[in-house]
Amino acid sequence: MAQTALQLARRNPAWTFGLTGGGFALAFILLAPVRAFLAGRGFSPPPGLLWLFVVGGFLGGYLLARLLWGRLGGAGSPSRGTLVGALVGLLSLPVPFYALEVAVVVARGNPFEPVAGASPFVQALSDLLLFVLTPILLGVLGLIPTYGSTVALGAFVGYLLARE
């Protein structure tokens, strides 16, 4: 059974990275409620918008593995698989923040403050830059609470997919 599951994972590396990213995000957002439950304070599920991290974790892992795994030859050797997997783990960190940002824009409109005295073109350019750069910054800062474990997990999955 384990060999069959590993063969299935090797045939579908993008799905494997996607499920790993979504599973990691699910474990990350459930950590605080489980700790509260174990401490005797009851279980309260995470707020609605935090579930977008699970969607973003899946999308980040899936899309980046689809883009990078074959192009960079991740299946070629265990060391290359480890490097490509680590890269997928690193670059997928901002994706949940993009999902969250899109949800905020859809639900509440533009979350960024207008620039005083700016023309509509400058305002649109400012909003676009903030829309693109804010999730990248949050993704970099996301390395701190996760202790870089998304990179390590991506490297581990890449190694497992590439080894003989």
TrEMBL record:
<feature type="transmembrane region" description="Helical">
    <location>
        <begin position="128"/>
        <end position="161"/>
    </location>
</feature>
<feature type="transmembrane region" description="Helical">
    <location>
        <begin position="12"/>
        <end position="37"/>
    </location>
</feature>
<keyword id="KW-1133">Transmembrane helix</keyword>
<feature type="transmembrane region" description="Helical">
    <location>
        <begin position="81"/>
        <end position="108"/>
    </location>
</feature>
<protein>
    <submittedName>
        <fullName>Uncharacterized protein</fullName>
    </submittedName>
</protein>
<keyword id="KW-0472">Membrane</keyword>
<feature type="transmembrane region" description="Helical">
    <location>
        <begin position="49"/>
        <end position="69"/>
    </location>
</feature>
<keyword id="KW-0812">Transmembrane</keyword>
